[in-house]
Design goal:
single chain, 125 residues, mainly alpha, 6 helices, binds protoporphyrin IX containing FE, Group III truncated hemoglobin, Globin/Proto, heme
């Protein structure tokens, strides 16, 4: 298997990732009921975010932590939900690609997950 090297390949990963999230009722309600995401708008934003993070392209300007604090204010994002999220994310990468960028992408997701959970704990005090 090859490494992730282009925005098109990042699209493949996030597309497969969202299929897994939406098929898992333990977490899908966040994306269908709490925040009604429109996949055709959401996936390109994810591609921009991960292309900037992994491939060094630009263009992502949103406040990622604040976006998740806003989701959490509507419906609690528990440690279990973060673990489910990360497991589907890792599976979507590992089933399609392998290499250095894959490891960087998984590491960044872990780090951001930790940061988000710390901010959520502070917000909930
Ligand atoms: C419990 C775990 C998580 C849940 C349930 C979750 C849920 C969501 C939801 C509902 C949105 C759409 C928000 C909106 O459009 O108003 C979103 C956006 C996003 N999430 Fe998460 N998220 C989780 C963890 C993470 C983690 C760990 C990352 C790490 C990179 C991440 C990356 C993103 C990105 C890049 C967006 C797009 C933000 C934008 O529109 O600019 N999420 N998430």
């Amino acid at each position: 298997m090859k490494d992730i090297q282009t925005p098109e390949e990042i699209y493949t990963v996030v597309d497969e990732f969202y299929k897994k999230l939406l098929a898992d009722e333990k977490i899908s309600y966040i994306f269908t009921d709490v925040v009604k995401i429109k996949l055709e708008e959401h996936l390109p934003i994810l591609v921009t975010f991960w292309s900037q993070a992994i491939l060094g392209t630009g263009g992502y300007v949103n406040n990622l932590t604040q976006i998740h604090l806003d989701v959490n204010a509507k419906s609690y994002l528990s440690k279990e939900l973060f673990e489910i999220w990360l497991a589907h994310f890792e599976a979507a990468i590992d089933e399609n690609f392998e290499g250095f960028n894959c490891e960087r992408m998984k590491n960044q997701a872990h780090n951001l997950s930790t940061i988000m959970q710390i901010k959520i704990a502070q917000q909930d005090k």
